[in-house]
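Re: beginner question about structure tokens

> Can someone show what the tokenized structure looks like for a real chain? I only ever see the sequence side.

Sure, here's an example I had lying around. Input first:
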Amino acid sequence: MPRERRLLFLALALIAAISPGSAIPHAALAQSTTASTTIVVNAETLVPRARIFVSPSAQTVLEGSTFDVSVYLDTEQNSANTIDVELRFPPDKLAIVNPSGGTSLIQVWLRPPTYSNQTGDAQYTGIVPNGVVTGSGLITTITFKALAAGQADITISPQSSVLANDGYGTPMATEFGQASYTITPQPPNGVVVSSPTHPFPSQWYNNPNPVFTWQQDPGVTGFSYVLDNEPYTIPGDTPNTTGTTAAYENLGDGLWYFHIKAQKLGIWGGTTNFLARIDTQPPAVFTPAADIISGSPQDKALISFFTTDALSGIDHYEVAVVDADAAPVASPVFVQAESPYQLIIPGPGSYHVIVRAFDQAGNVRDASLDITVATPVLQFLEDHDVEIMAGLLALILLLLILHYFFGHKLLRRVHRAIVAVEEESKREKLEEAEEVIAEENGGPPPSPTPSPLPPSEEDQGKP
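And the corresponding structure tokens:
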């Protein structure tokens, strides 16, 4: 690879620069009788290494059953930040039921995990910000179904790659592991088993209390059964019961296999393996997001949501919208939806949006958010709050300036006018009183004498 060549050249140049004979000219070196030292550098040691492997590497599974396969990364003390894994499997022997268990060291998926049961491949591409140093970092856990008896090999394609966290995206020399699985056929002549609580082995249920029933053929004297998490267990040769029912309570989440065989005439028949899938945990917690789009004639909101489920996987989402300003609704109406969900907003107001995630076992996780759409006036004020505040401050400042320059003179003139009116009123009353006195005394009325107005504040101080 060109990158490896550059690293080799730099290493050789560094070795040449620090070797004892580096200061001797080439011609002198050729003539020197001093013994020279040959340094051999393995270029492979200069390239960071990694390993991608599958676990378990070998296992025996039962035809028709499901089992989990985990893909791990070993960075061999190096730091890696980008992982691209292509996994291959025989499509006639295996089929992917769930491509991801929901747990992974990859923090950002560059694309969702993809797979094809027709071509027998699956791809996982993502990054780990700031890199990761790990000996067994879980990339993904895949649930396979054994379709037919035989040998099934799962390999990591050489097209897969791991990039070093060195700022250059250096491809790491990666070793790719593989796994081999032996699929055994279903044993013939087994007991016919059914379950009223978990009737379909291919489906998940949120009931942790399974009940199993089976048929008793003529001549059968007893049954031996066991419940565990292994798909190929064979019960012991000691009868457990002569009945036809077994019930369990409070089982943990996961895959449970009910194994049973019958005894007839002292001979044990084949084992029947009945799978019950239990998932009682809801999907992971999530937070919806809304993006308001204003338009005519109505506003719209794009509601985005996403979550995962560790066991059974997400089945579907439902969305309900409640008017927060209206009377409370006991049971809002939910509609099945996909992200992003386009919500038509009928008008201004507050709305409560509920997003409900269902996994394939029927468990539910609710998440909600509130959306507020303002009236046009309030929306204008909200959109132009900075300009409005600046205008109000400017108006207040202008009023203060006008009051400073003109307010005091105006008040003084109003005061003088009020004083003049009061003095004129007093003078008229005094003249009326003098006229009355003169008439009573029989003399002529006195001539009116105007009362002087009091000097204004502006005239006070004038000579």
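Each token stands for a local structural state, so reading them left to right follows the chain. Residues 193-278 form a domain with the Immunoglobulin-like fold (CATH 2.60.40.10).
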